[in-house]
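Review box. Two proteins, two foldings.
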Amino acid sequence: MTAALPFYLWGPPAPTSKPSLLLVHGLGPQSIWQWRNQISFFARDFDVYVPDLLFFGDSFTKSTDRSEIFQATCLAKLLQKLGIIPWYSIVGMNYGGFVAYHMAVMWPERVEKVVFASCAVNMSQRDTSELMERAKVEKIEDLLMPVNATQLRKLPAFIHSRPSGCPTCRIFCSRVLLRNCTQNPGKKSSNS
């Protein structure tokens, strides 16, 4: 990770002759945790790249932009700097599906195939506005990318059809997600 490439990235040291596959994580902890079971399967046939999106895990920037378009633009720049061209395929889970969607729309000549898992890229602006109103937030990023414990506690009610009261879920949210949201607080805060 460098100032020019503020991403933590798991992947091969250099591109090979195999096609490239980008696995973009959803909401939650580090990408390697979400994709750990799929990496070895895909690595047989692909050069697999698994970045932590900005503001997640060990990836950060001083920018206050938290939009999916910003994430997509930064990922495309990262792949270009790494020499992963002329094309690649993307699998995006949850929030990562939105990022993958924007990459495919903005660079159709680079994205060969795209898979969306557990995301609603077909949500209308009206759907988003209604969700923001229910969550009492001004920007969707304030709900989907919490930067403090208060915002984090609000999130499960909006990402699960029936928020679980199970102890495991509460422990996961309170320990893992909160730790992820509070790592590098000065670097992730929208006020930095």
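Next protein.
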Amino acid sequence: MWWWKKCREFWDVMDRRGLCKSLYSYSIYMDIQCESGKLWRAVKLYKEMKKKGIRLDVVAYNTVIHAIGLSEGVEFSIRVSREMKEVGFEPNVGTYNKKGCAPNVMTYHCFLGCLEKPRQILRMFDRMMNGGFRPRMDTYVMLMKKFGRWGFLRPVFIIWKKMEEQGCSPDACAYSALINALVQKGLVDEARMYEEQMLAKGLSSKPRVDLGSKPHTE
């Protein structure tokens, strides 16, 4: 603990002598605050940097995301990660798995919702699965909707297949996401096939007019 106190003394000396604190200085001191459990101080330093107009780099953002996520919650860390992307930095592995910040299903769900590159999303999804975290149904649906909206059909089926491999029975939202993606690509016959499956399972009682499916009867 003594060296953390020593670092604080050096930091105070810089203030007293009017020495200019660089991004490098702030990054080191923020990391020290995190290691010592004083997450609120790390967040305070981040706000101080922004007030001074200091432009953060990837390392600094990763430290802030870790600190603010643990001290104020995942939603706040997501806000900072969005800010990070807005200023031109792509999140890296350290952003999502900062030392001492153990991810959970909700953490992965939130970050997957923020990512905007298909390959990056699939890598993160694989990381989630390989880490032993089982996605929730709303995570599967969110990803299929996202890929479908972008017009990427192959990733939609990758997620669908993963869902089936995990023994998750698709609900009406999952079917709708897949069907919408197929319709967008003009694959009406295939979309109709999945809608008929959904109707047969009783997940919906009203077939889509544009597909011409018939209501399921016993």
